[in-house]
């Protein structure tokens, strides 16, 4: 084995200690916390605000009121899941376009447009 090339654990440690990697990790955890909070609070808000609006403004009570409130909460949950999936898709697309720097000083990007 050549003494100049770092071993696999050394490369992994360099990757983990890289400030860009730490930023990506903290960013991912921040987004997860945001979506988790939204998933917990927004359906409740949608349910009770729809229930209030149907009762006080449209004078709908009983089963139609409950059904409309539940539908609003389910739609909010599905919207949050859709937004979370789109965020993950965009992050994955960004990672696919990223190439490691060759000289170690700047980050490289792959151009997706072809020059004509």
TrEMBL record:
Keywords of the record: Cytoplasmic vesicle, Endoplasmic reticulum, Membrane, Transmembrane, Transmembrane helix
InterPro entries referenced in this protein's UniProt entry, alphabetically: Vma21
Membrane-spanning residues: 28-48, 68-86
Any one Gene Ontology cellular component term annotated for this protein: cytoplasmic vesicle
Listed GO biological process terms: vacuolar proton-transporting V-type ATPase complex assembly
Superkingdom of the source species: Eukaryota
Location of region: Disordered: 1-22, 92-116
Coiled-coil parts of chain: none
Protein name: Vacuolar ATPase assembly integral membrane protein VMA21 homolog
Species per Swiss-Prot/TrEMBL record: Anopheles culicifacies
